[in-house]
């Protein structure tokens, strides 16, 4: 069974909820490390003959078109992650539509291919932002990967596995973040800080179990900055600092282990689009 491997293409300072330190107006002040870190990710994927979905920030695509072209030439899927990495509940419907349209335009201009997928920064679809799915479908997006069946980070009533959602513009596919059941919650364990915290054996065995027991594909995600143990530290609230920096050295060996023992591909392949 093919599991979905995804990369949120952000630089080390693209951190939600830290407007005082990482507002777009200040981004030019920071050192860009996204190209070198993404090249590390690409080299790992090439070594394991694996393709992934890269959710691209429009801002990065505009600043680093050669990087986007290189990802595309390697055969990976290019989807979008918004333009300025703003969470949905920080945007009006009109602002969101413009953000997505701008992101689609800049990526399409580089690749010449239709963009099929979208992921909201910080998995920010909630019950009160479900209107975003209709906007995505209106703009030609075929699938979303922004939902988490978890209280506060998402909504506990969200689906656990890929499913179809009806919108005013037609049906859209949803590929939610993979979670594990823990008492009354569904906790993530396949990307970001949760992947870095969870024991590797648990992540591997749980994905294998889900593939075999339920016939369902899991979803794994990483950020290029998680492969850069020397990237500068930014002044963050304690909780955000923990989320961003804790156990970063575990990312690469865990991802390489998963690539060695499981089969992965881009979301468009998993959903047969």
Brief account:
By secondary structure, the protein is of the alpha/beta class.
Q: Total strand count, please? A: 11
Poorly predicted spans:
none
Strand content: 15-25%
CATH class: Alpha Beta
Q: Supply the number of structural domains.
A: 1
CATH superfamily: Glycoside hydrolase/deacetylase
Termini, distance in Å? 16 Å
Rounded average pLDDT: 92
What is the tally of helical segments? 11
Helix content: 25-40%
CATH architecture name: Alpha-Beta Barrel
Structural account:
It is globular and about 45 Å long. Strands 1, 2, 3, 10 and 11 form a five-stranded parallel β-sheet that branches. About 40% of the residues lie in helices and about 15% in strands. The protein has a single domain, classed as Alpha-Beta Barrel (TIM Barrel). The chain has helices spanning about 20, 35-45, 60-65, 65-75, 95-110, 130-140, 190-195, 200-215, 240-245, 250-260, 265-270; strands at about 1-10, 55, 75-80, 115-120, 145, 165, 170-175, 180, 185-190, 220, 265. α5 runs parallel beside α6 (about 130-140).
Give the topology.
Blueprint: E1 2-9, H1 19-22, H2 34-47, E2 53-56, H3 58-63, H4 65-73, E3 77-80, H5 93-111, E4 117-118, H6 131-138, E5 143-144, E6 163-167, E7 170-174, E8 179-182, E9 185-188, H7 192-197, H8 200-214, E10 219-222, H9 238-245, H10 251-261, E11 263-265, H11 267-270
Parallel strand pairs: 1-2, 1-10, 1-11, 2-3, 4-5, 5-7
Antiparallel strand pairs: 6-7, 8-9
Helix pairs in contact: 5-6
